[in-house]
Task: structure prediction
Amino acid sequence: MKAIAYTHCLPVTDANSLQEMDLPDPAAPTGRDVLVEVHAVSVNPVDAKQRAKSDPKGTPRILGFDGAGVVRAVGPDAVLFQPGDQVFWAGAINRPGSNAELQLVDERVVGRMPSSLTFAEAAAMPLTTLTAWEGLFDRLRIARDPAPTGEAVLIVGGAGGVGSIAIQLARKLSGMTVITTASRPETRDWCMDLGAHHVIDHREDMAAQVKALKLRVSRIFSTTNTAANWPVLCALLAPQGMICAIDEGSALDMSLLRAKSAGFHWEGMFARSLFQTPDMEAQHRLLTEAAALLDAGTLRTTLTRHLGPITAENLRAGHALVEGGTMIGKAVAEGWV
Result:
């Protein structure tokens, strides 16, 4: 099968950082695995981080943590899908990824693809939707109730992939006032268009800007720069509030939360698949519900950049975009040449 892989950690500017290869097809699916034919993939920060830091020491490693495609075969214990089903998924960090014509994925982390979306539009969604959904509703325990609560959630990094879906989920499925951060006119407009009630500039005094809104921020979902922003996040969080973060960073001073009896939670979207948790199938149900919301028009795809076919050159361009730190929404590659 055709695949895009890497064998050593190299800068994205190096033509060998991602290479087109002809690799063996995956084995026939066993257990609850499904074999999918990949039609479209998106690029996430985790792709770039793995390529730059996780050295496979010469053995080809296939990245790709978002995909949309068609089921070609199912394992003997699979019960959720049949050959021919159109699906979307984020996969697992400890298995070969979606940057290949064929991929084995556990059906418990796969969802039926929204019928109203193209493969490219669908491929933009799984990882960020799972991360945002789990962060907001599982970790921060925001109620799934549109009735106004009088409280606010602050989403740090609203224009990124996770922020772009988190704004929609918080606005459409909860009764909280949605505040997010953006520093450029185009990112501010994007966040407002997705449903944010207020957008503040993370390059300016965030605490002063939030104070001016006269809102009680009881929940904070930090998608970027958590360590750098940590003192101000703790300062503006309401007593007995909760912060959830997804980005890697240095140690955080938890003592800043003590006086407020506040809490902190990491969100790691791959935890369920990595540790084979008993509730692993929750991600299938989550993606299925998200697909229904996308088909109903309640949510919308966050695809903003179509990279062209799935080639090493185009995926390197996608990695460069996410490494640049100014990407709005998601970049997707579609089809094989």
About this structure: DSSP finds ten helices and 16 strands in the chain. Residues 68 and 88 are 4 Å apart (CA to CA). The chain has two domains: 2-125+277-334, 129-266.
